[in-house]
Amino acid sequence: MQSSSTIGRLGLEILWGCLAALALGTAPGRAQGFTANTAALVRQGDRLFLQGDYSGAGAAYSQALREDSDNASIYYDRGNALMRQGDYLAAQADFAAALQLEPHYSSALVSSGVAEFYQGNIPAALAAYNQALELNPNNPYGFVDRAQIYYQEQNYQEAVTDYSRALNLDSSLPAAYYGRGLANYQLQRYQQAVADLTHALDNNPHRLEVYYARAIARNYLGDYQGAAADYSQVIRLLPENANVYIDRANVRLKLGDKSGAVADLQAAASLFQQQGKSDSYQKALTFAQQLLAPPPPPPVPKKLPKLRGKRHRVTKHQTG
């Protein structure tokens, strides 16, 4: 059975899941007073960002800033493009420039918190989120990101509280359902975890990490059929992951599906061999061979011991 550390690693997906919604937020003065050329460059950057070309987006925003260096939203947009490229220090500088121009720019504070988080500056990240939420308590993404801080600090109940606040503001946020599901799992509230992860999939049915998390929670609940179905979805989305085949094999054994478990172990062994993981290959193969081996013959019964002592002879008087 999977450990809590597996679920903990899944939690790191949450921040990037909600950054897309934050990335092109609006500053108080966005697009106001732009020249036609600056506005065209900003639109180009927005389009490239949404296409996943963060380097190209950053270049377009930089060109726009050469024409208009006093617009907070362009610094904010470029900061998000830089953060997506992993350049957190440069992103932090852009968010600071945006806040210098617009001190009440709450979305810039939230993104600043994200940058601090990925640099390992947890207190600074938490301070940025707190300030952003004071300025704008109706920003659900601020609650989602602060909840992630609590989650990483293993303060799971506070994480659940913030995810719930985010959902009260926007009930369609898959990142909030996903995060709350992971936090509920850590609190051993497996039924609530399954419910939250199911809601997350309602909004985005192609997130394999959500299926994987729900499979683990269902396994703890003894819902092996549901767990097997979730592992199958993960395999459909990521067929080259050998470990998921082993996870499904273990669940199939609990369901009494020995042949299915063997097939999964053989598939895992084949993938491990292709990936050059000889130890894992051998373990999966040995497990499959053990399941395929015929059962040992029943033990030969021991001879009954001879009775000791004199035999009791029945006499005529005793019978008559």
Q: Topology of this protein?
A:
Layout: H1 4-10, H2 13-23, H3 36-50, H4 54-67, H5 72-84, H6 88-101, H7 106-118, H8 122-135, H9 140-152, H10 156-169, H11 174-186, H12 190-203, H13 208-221, H14 224-237, H15 242-254, H16 258-274, H17 278-292, H18 316-319
Summarize it.
This protein is mainly alpha-helical and 320 residues long. It is built from 18 helices and no strands. Among the domains are: 10-119, Tetratricopeptide repeat domain (Serine Threonine Protein Phosphatase 5, Tetratricopeptide repeat, Alpha Horseshoe), CATH 1.25.40.10; 242-293, no CATH class.
Q: Can you walk through the features of this model?
A:
This protein has 320 residues and is mainly α. It has helices at residues 4-10, 13-23, 36-50, 54-67, 72-84, 88-101, 106-118, 122-135, 140-152, 156-169, 174-186, 190-203, 208-221, 224-237, 242-254, 258-274, 278-292, 316-319. Among the domains are: 10-119, Tetratricopeptide repeat domain (Serine Threonine Protein Phosphatase 5, Tetratricopeptide repeat); 242-293, no CATH class. The protein contains 18 helices and no strands. Helix 5 (72-84) runs parallel beside helix 7, helix 9 runs parallel beside helix 11 and helix 10 runs antiparallel to helix 11 (174-186). It starts with a helix and ends with a helix. The relative contact order is 0.07. The model is unreliable at 11-29 (pLDDT under 50).
